[in-house]
Amino acid sequence: MVDFEQIFSERASKMERSEIREILKLIQQGDVISFAGGLPNPEAFPIEATKKIINENLDEMGEKVLQYGSTEGVNPLRKELAKLMRDRGMDVDHENILITHGSQQALDLLSKVLLNPGDKILVGSPTYLGATGAFKAFEGEMETVEVREDGMDMDLLDRKLRQMKVKGELPKFIYVVLTFQNPSGATMTAEKRERLLDIASKYDILIVEDSPYSHLRYEGEKMPHLMSMDTEERVVRLETFSKILAPGFRIAWMTGPEELIEKMVIAKQATDLCTNPFGQYVAYKYLSEGIMDEHLENIKELYNKKRLTMLDSMEEHFPDEVEWNRPEGGMFIWAELPKHVDTREMFEKAVDEKVAYVVGDAFYVDDGGNNTMRLNYTHSSEEEIKRGIKALSKVIKEEIEMAEKKEESPIAP
User: Fold this and answer.
1) Domain end: 252, 275, 291, which one?
2) Cβ contacts of residue 243 below 8 Å, gap of 6+?
3) Global pTM exceeds 0.85
4) Three-class DSSP category at 208
5) Beta-carbon neighbour count of residue 374 at 10 Å?
6) How confident is the model over 307-336, as pLDDT tens digits?
7) Domain termination site, one of 257, 291, 325
8) Which residues, 6+ apart, have CB-to-CB distance to 162 below 8 Å?
9) pLDDT for 206-248, tens place per residue?
């Protein structure tokens, strides 16, 4: 038998499984109501429209859609995406766009072309764990700045970068999810976005903005896109069709300076040569024929009902000691329990009651978040949301009572 532990690379030996993927494996029983995954609802999948588009594509250009494509992505889609972004105030051309196999591949490729072992990256606390997994895989070292309800704390960010500059350890880039952040649901204000750009310019640092949820706004004022405010080509933007079309296509796109895109293309050629053209041409038709606009409105109506159902159910059932935010869009609600309650210890009890969530500490690079949880409202039905929140509130109340009794118990001599 081969002893693989002896032949794995040092890099491979440090790789870890995704915590969320492992949690999802634990709750595959059909009777568990899961608020854990960031899954779109199958009701949002445009099956009939997709059938029509696929048949049209096969009839009109079957040789193209079934053939290899260029590494950069098929030009019709890239041009439509550039038009979409220009309509949203971002001054880009299709040459600034690389089509990737989901945003996770973009994070992997960025790490590959930007990070040397030991390089610093600055991330929020909490932050998306898929990103931290990619950075760790290429041996990047993360520094954190607290994320508040209105986004990353800019005073702390400036102070952190000043300290890092003194040590000669400025990060290669700042990674942010500015709109309906995963996991916290936080959205950075326009004023903070302006200041973020000023700080990045001051220290001459790249900003990587991951933006999978910006199309999913249900209420409130739209925030300006960071790239539309950028005058120095300092912003790299990641977007995806996974949340607004279907994750099964695995189609996403990265927008950035041409020099960076060119290096990413070279890195991608060593990975998979090209993202699947079949799915790209489907996405192209959705955009070019205006189908996406109507589809987005349907998704937002569906998800907003679920969001309001979860918020109302939490208001009705959760104990007063629990606090949570009210995100204006996206897919998640972030809840904070009393400090003495550990949501990781509570998780199995919740699963016993047939409900699941993601433990908050999974999203912290440093210690923290032990008393927090992320709740997804898009995947479950409204009835499941009501039953699941009621069951979860029962577990939370019992856990709070038990934790309070422990604190009150005298310590044995």
Assistant:
1) 291
2) 40, 212, 213, 215, 216, 331
3) yes
4) strand
5) 26
6) 999 999 999 999 999 999 999 999 999 999
7) 291
8) none
9) 999 999 999 999 999 999 999 999 999 999 999 999 999 999 9
